Amino acid sequence: MSQLANPGTAAAFQTKRGRFRKKSFKEAVEFYIFISPWFVVFIFLGLIPLLYGLYLSFTNYAGFNMDRLTFVGLDNYRKVFTDNDAMYSLGRTLFFTVIMVPTSIVLGFLLAVLLNQNIKRIGLYRTLFFIPSIIPVVAVGTMWRSLFVDEGVINNLLIEIGMEPIDWLGYDYAIYPLIIMLLWGVGGGILIYLAGLKGVSKDLYEAAAIDGAKTFQRFTKITIPLVTPVLFFQFIMSIIGSLQIFVQPILLAANSNSLLSTPIRPNYVYSVHAFQQIFAYGRFGYGLALLWVLFIMILVLTVVVFSSSKLWVFYEVDQEGK
Questions:
Q1: Backbone φ, ψ for residue 195 (5° rounding)
Q2: What is the CATH number of domain 75-321?
């Protein structure tokens, strides 16, 4: 306090603070200049269309009636919950989500655990499991559809072993090719899981082994708790991705020749229904309402999962702070 009371020291302090503020302001200006291209694109190609779409969801917009646009309030949103096709497609979407989310997380995590071992040519194995996730979805859909068509490889193999061919893309079996195709890309999360596994200290495993802990005990008591932040992230992303599933059912459609093809009924998911309403039937206002309902549902589920994370997600930082 005595130093600050000195007029010379106080003046030097004020000068230094002024330089610091000037430098901080300069850095802030440079930062906003660097992000300005992204920010402009986000405003004009992201935020404005998003808000405009929200506005149109409250109107009778049909694509070519801007001069006769009428505000209809919540009519489009009420129609969502009285539309049998919308409710059916929502049910199918939730069904796929319930199957895909836990299955993809468990398979992806177990694959990552296996690929985290110090064995010969482990880099090659990691590459092989990761490649399916970077192949374009159209190529993946085309490949799997060619395997499951009536005269495809799968049916030819069944005939070779003396079995009857199966109509895989028909009503009774269409769900299975879709699930297989989606699970084929489960390796996409391997890199994230491996990053989490690499962050677990080997000292913990060594200490547990000295105390007599078995391999399974070390896996359940050390590995899983310490990678729960990664599992939590993957859980959120899997829910969002599963609820937005769109292209794969269309590509597997029995008469798939364009994005306007309607998937067979068991694979008729919510995003496909919204797409059909907008681009096949020109019900833009109603289709946008469908999409906003999906957005709200994803938001609610995300909030619920975040709220539950304090019960099962372990953060080492929290432990250090206690």
A1: -60, -40
A2: 1.10.3720.10
